[in-house]
Amino acid sequence: MPAPYTHCVDPVILRYYYKSLLPTWLPARFVKAMLDTLVKRAVRRGGSRSLILPYLEICITPRCNLKCRHCANFMQLYDQAEDYPADTVLNAFSKFLDGIDYLAKLRILGGEPLLHKGLAEIVDFCGKHRKIGRIIVVSNGSLTPDGDIIRALRNAGAQVHISNYERTRKRREEVTEVLRTNGIHVLFTKNQQWKDYGRGEHFAYSPDKVRAVFKKCPIHCKTLVGEEFHICPRSAHGTILGFIHKREEDYLNVHALSTKELTRRIIRLYNTDHVEACYHCNDKAHALLLPPGEQ
Ligand code: SF4
Ligand code: SF4
Question: Closest ligand to 284 CA?
Fold first, then answer.
């Protein structure tokens, strides 16, 4: 089971968190000395008492212009996908952020987020929010961002992570060139290989086995989809699509809870030992490798 996230002990994340609390006009030398002291003190006492999350992804649309046969997030199964309106995304995300103290890394994804007309507005919001550290937009590399999105990415200091699919190689090089020319940092996954978690079929695991599947799973990509927070995108989209049973304890609706209750439920979900969706993942996935982005 992953370590509880109530007490962050990662010095790098703690540094970013404390830095976000300090006024920006302080002299750099003073900031460095203060951060050294605060981080050392937090690590010595077993971590920060603030709720610092290392990672969250927000899915702003299930629409995608590719239909990867083995998309782990089940996007290929949406027949009539629609974008989540920017105000729905931002209201839910804003409420979620009220329930925590800091989010170290945010990934904005889809489907394909560049299809969303409100992407620039969403990136603008994230770039100005003091509780958010690093911002990454994940794209399949087949679309060139327009001027408004480029401006928003640059202002927010956001990075773009482009998937390494053979099919989009030429286009990806053009898109990368545009982004780099505009001063935006581009990331790639080298030697990317996909694991075959299955198409969502149910496996009859015992209670112990399903916990073992969860424990071994490298995904655990905490996800906000619409107004719902899930600990895994397969849980979010599998329940939306209706082939995974939706259990109360596997997700939360950010608008249904007070801020205090939201914090309590986020911590509980971060410390779960499995979700219903784990019954729909192949425990042999690590040995079943697939070419990325196959259509
Ligand atoms: S490009 Fe990404 S989101 Fe779209 S279908 Fe492929 S894996 Fe899924
Ligand atoms: S459903 Fe469970 S086992 Fe499957 S990817 Fe998500 S966390 Fe991992």
Answer: 2
